[in-house]
Amino acid sequence: MITLLRSRRSIRKFTGQKISKDIQDLLIEAMLRSQSSRNIRPWEFIIVDDKKKLEHLSKAKQHGSGLIKGAALAVVVIADTNKSDVWVEDASIASIQLQLMADSLGLGSCWVQIRNRMATDELSSDQFVKQALEVPDNYSVESVISIGYPAESPKPHSKENLQYDKVKYGSFSKPFYQD
Ligand SMILES: Cc1cc2nc3c(=O)[nH]c(=O)nc-3n(C[C@H](O)[C@H](O)[C@H](O)COP(=O)(O)O)c2cc1C
Questions:
Q1: DSSP 159-176
Q2: Confidence band for 178, pLDDT divided at 50, 70 and 90
Q3: Beta pairing class for 108-113 and 139-148
Q4: Ligand 1 atom nearest residue 64's Cα
Q5: Span from the CA of 126 to the centroid of ligand 1 (angstroms)
Q6: 48 neighbors 141 (Cβ within 8 angstroms)
Q7: Nearest of 108, 9, 119 to residue 63 by alpha carbon
Q8: How far is it, in rounded angstroms, from Cα 109 to Cα 31?
Q9: What domains can be seen in the chain, in order of their start residue?
Q10: Ligand 1 mean position to 113 CA, how many Å?
């Protein structure tokens, strides 16, 4: 696990290679195994691999969503907001579990933020994605996780850049690590 975390980066450029059904099944199993508050599992997932739909979803925001069109597939993570008051946390965990599973399979991925973002001055990103994929009103869209075989290899974050000063020991004022 630590080896995976040490090399993990967001990937925004993908080769055109498709993701096999067997690999997709592993990704799906990984997200369905996510922990959730009271095991309510308020999330649902829409797998999109149709090029035209990916292209359309890439316009879900004015900035930061263009990468979706180059992905082999996108997993749109939605949740029934009536089912849990902590659906945001649950949907985030499932999104990250999916991304880490993708990394472990040699895939690359990037989270595209949808919640609290705008597609146009009038239309929220949430509404945009829900209209595109016929999602009912009682759902919210947490993220669009864009996945594919990596066509870039950003340098891993170095250990020197980790913010060890953010770790405290016993109380806020006492650092865990000292020079
Ligand atoms: C909640 C969240 C929202 C993000 N939204 C976007 C996004 O909309 N577009 C994008 O290109 N990257 C997005 N990212 C990826 C971050 O930009 C990325 O994780 C950060 O720059 C650190 O880079 P790294 O993942 O390579 O370590 C998001 C990441 C998180 C966790």
A1: GGGS-GGG-EESEEEEES
A2: confident
A3: antiparallel
A4: 9
A5: 17
A6: no
A7: 119
A8: 14
A9: 2-175 (3.40.109.10)
A10: 8
**19 CA to middle of ligand 1, Å?**
22
User: What tokens appear for 49 in the block?
Assistant: 């691999």
Helix (H, G, I), strand (E, B) or coil at 148: strand
The DSSP symbol for 139 reads E
Atom 6 in ligand 1: residue holding the nearest Cα: 112
The structure's pTM equals: 0.97
Closest CA to 28 of 147, 115, 132: 147
Cβ < 6 A, ligand 1 pocket: 9-10, 12, 64, 67, 110-113
| pLDDT tens readout for residues 24-45 | 999 999 999 999 999 999 999 9
User: Tell me: the pLDDT tens digits for 13-26?
Assistant: 999 999 999 999 99
N-to-C CA span, the chain: 27
**Closest residue to atom 20 of ligand 1, CA basis:** 10
Instruction: Report phi then psi at 7, rounded to 5.
Output: -105, -10
- Residue with CA at minimum distance from ligand 1 atom 31: 111
Distance 170 CA to ligand 1 centre (A): 31
Closest atom of ligand 1 to CA, residue 92: 1
Packing angle, helices 21-32 and 87-104, rounded to 10? 140
